[in-house]
Amino acid sequence: MSGLVFVFGLLIGSFLNVVILRLPHGQTLLGRSACPHCRYQLRVPDLVPVLSFLFLRGKCRQCRQPISWRYPALELVVAGLFLCAYLIIQPVTGLGVLLLAEAWVIIAVCVVTFVVDFEHYLILDRVTFVGLTALVLLKAIHYFIGQGAGWSWQDPWVSGLIGVVLGFVPFFLLWLFSRGRLMGFGDVKFMLFAGLALGWPNIIVALLLAFWLGALVAVPLLFLGKKKLQSSVPFGTFLAVATVVGLLYGNTLWYWYISLTRVY
After folding, report:
1. pTM attached to this predicted model
2. What is the tens place of the pLDDT at every residue in 78-96?
3. How many angstroms separate the CA atoms of 161 and 134, rounded?
4. Domain containing 113: what range?
5. Beta partners for 34?
């Protein structure tokens, strides 16, 4: 089963490559892919994830221009993350399958957000809100099948709403009072998705990790003169990484942190 999950992840990674390549430029996802150099329309043998890249030695079949290594790398990353989520959740019931589907939606949205924001300083509403809609539907099914957990933070809706309040509201207020100078509205909307995706307490783990990652990258760049205080930083990339870490290891990191506070 793990092998099938990995192959499925490769296929989704291949699709996400198309999303990342086309949506920032306002292009449709419909239509066949083509070589960016000679516009040769790719056929099925050219589209097999990772294997086509290796077989063609990283070059276009028609014009022999190099193909970016990013395409197979992203396919492998998505496949690895999908497999990791599967091994952590280990679904054996219908609810487990729903949780895995939620995890895969979150991973897919975060991968696209990471790359697009890193390259274009842009968080795509279409990606964020498609992911948000999918999460709402999956959580609704989860609630009705599992009958919920009452008014407890363990209930998927209660936990998700707490996550939205803790994630979305502070970012919205920061954007509002700074008039967009300290925070882009794309980040605010992404936190609506991340808050619902992670819930309590994983959203706290993700927020702390995102700000730490941002500081670890931004401070050296400021020190080296590569960035200025007024420079824009693609904070969505850090939010995306932190959201995936919070999804997969949030509970472990949270209870590890709690254990430290008890010691000291």
Report:
1. 0.89
2. 999 999 999 999 888 888 8
3. 16
4. 94-264
5. 41
